[in-house]
Design a protein that fits this description.
Blueprint lengths: L4 H9 L17 E7 L3 H14 L4 E4 L15 E2 L8 H13 L1 H5 L10 E5 L2 H17 L4 E3 L1 H7 L14 E5 L3 E2 L2 H13 L4 E3 L4 E7 L2 E7 L2 E10 L5 H6 L8 E12 L7 E4 L4 E5 L4 E12 L7 H14 L8 E11 L6 E4 L5 E5 L9 H14 L13 H4 L17
Parallel strand pairs: 1-2, 1-11, 2-8, 4-13, 11-18
Antiparallel strand pairs: 3-7, 4-6, 5-6, 9-10, 10-11, 12-15, 12-16, 13-14, 14-15, 17-18
């Protein structure tokens, strides 16, 4: 089924009775070439690129709930490529390029809006760091512009420029950054994978991983045993739990990250804006709601809910930055389970178990990485070689200490990344 303006018009005039299901609700077969544990954005993108780029279609995506019900549907939808360190920089640059052609690739409206992101800075030291980051971004081939306070006042007139506690010294703009519709990204990849023959199996909880002689043989599930030549663990905040089924202890902690959305308002925020001193970030959705978030809840948890002290913290940061939002009513909040790595950077690599592959440690970078993660993970599964854009995202860097990518310079402490 293809989408077009004419098709949308025709269906709207005929009661929308001609639409077909977007993907097959498959039942598990006895065996597959590849089993992907996790039906979120990264898992679905991996399945799509396995079929699209490598012709591997005997693939099953196993999701214990419904497709897109995890972190891919619980985030603030920001897409950017403003990373600083080698390893992260080229990976997120690769992912942003895939974002820019994603709607044409999938023939699906993921509502990718390149409205630009502005990261504010509030001291001379932060300005110097922003200049270094901007230069690194441009050396990578991405865009970056330094904005003075005078230019900021024209672009973001609603900020509080008079405050003494966190004076605004300027901002770093990436025009190609922006937002996308998180649900639509999952649905688009699901549809693309399914129409190429991938089995998307919902309500299928993985309860064990079968290993013989140091090699993976398949998985135990709530819907029976499924044999597989290769198994990919792509479950975000549940990575440690699933890896434990294979006898592995990952360098991952799971923390809750809350996000919030207000009632619908008239257009007032044209960009993604990040507060350099308060870890607060905000944008306005196409429906008019202000979507924003802040710090982790700081305690390890697998509960997809937050706590009130962080609610207060995020609201304080928002009011400090832009008091105009004080009259907006918050409609709802949610929590995503973040898989935090010690250096704040992801892992796309083979595991010590033959045939078992890992994709985890996304910290704050998970949604924006969806296309790049799926593309690089599919390459690894198909060829057993890392993709050039993910060559540094190795698991063994935590054992050897070589190649660590401490993007935020906060040391080896999971909950600070």
């Amino acid at each position: 089924m293809r989408f077009s303006g004419l098709r949308v018009l025709r269906e709207g005039l005929t009661g929308n009775r001609g639409w077909q299901a977007h993907w097959r609700d498959a039942s598990p077969k006895d065996a597959y070439d590849v089993v992907i544990i996790g039906g979120g954005g990264h898992g679905l993108a991996t399945a799509y690129y396995l079929a699209r780029e490598h012709g591997i279609t005997n693939v099953a995506v196993l999701e214990k709930g419904y497709l897109g019900g995890g972190n891919v549907g619980r985030n603030t939808t920001i897409v950017r490529a403003n990373y600083f360190l080698p390893g992260n920089s080229e990976f997120y640059s690769h992912s942003l390029k895939l974002w820019e052609g994603l709607e044409q690739e999938l023939n699906y409206n993921v509502m990718h809006s390149q409205r630009g992101q502005i990261v504010l800075f509030h001291s001379d030291g932060q300005r110097d760091a922003a200049i270094r980051r901007g230069n690194a971004m441009r050396n990578q081939g991405d865009d970056a512009e330094l904005l003075s306070v005078a230019r900021l006042k024209k672009v973001l007139p609603y900020l509080d420029y008079e405050q003494a506690r966190f004076p605004i010294y300027g901002g770093l703009l990436q025009r190609r950054a922006g937002t996308a519709r998180h649900d639509a990204v999952a649905w688009g990849y699901a549809r693309g994978a399914s129409e190429r023959g991938v089995d998307l199996i919902q309500n299928c909880d993985v309860t064990g991983i079968d290993i013989e002689g140091g090699a993976v043989k398949g998985v135990q599930t709530s819907r029976g045993v499924i044999r597989a030549k290769k198994v990919a663990v792509i479950v975000a905040g549940r990575s440690s739990q699933v890896a434990a089924m294979a006898g592995m202890r990952l360098p991952i902690e799971s923390h809750v990250l809350q996000a919030f959305v207000t009632e619908g308002l008239k257009p007032c925020i044209d960009h993604v804006v990040s507060f350099g001193m308060g870890h607060f970030y905000i944008s306005q959705s196409d429906k008019g709601g202000l979507v924003f978030g802040g710090d982790l809840d700081m305690y390890a948890s697998y509960a997809a809910r937050g706590n009130l002290p962080l609610v207060e913290h995020v609201m304080e940061a928002g009011m400090t930055l832009m008091p105009m939002i004080g009259q907006a009513k918050v409609l709802r909040s949610w929590g995503g389970i973040m898989d935090m790595s010690p250096d704040g950077s992801p892992i796309i690599d083979k595991s010590p178990v033959e045939g078992l592959y890992l994709n985890c440690g996304w910290c704050y970078g998970g949604f924006k990485a969806v296309p790049g993660s799926g593309h690089c993970m599919a390459h690894l599964l198909a060829t057993d070689r890392p993709h050039a854009a993910a060559a540094r995202l190795r698991l063994d860097r935590f054992r050897t200490g070589r190649g660590l990518m401490d993007e935020e310079g906060t040391g080896a402490q999971h909950n600070l990344h």
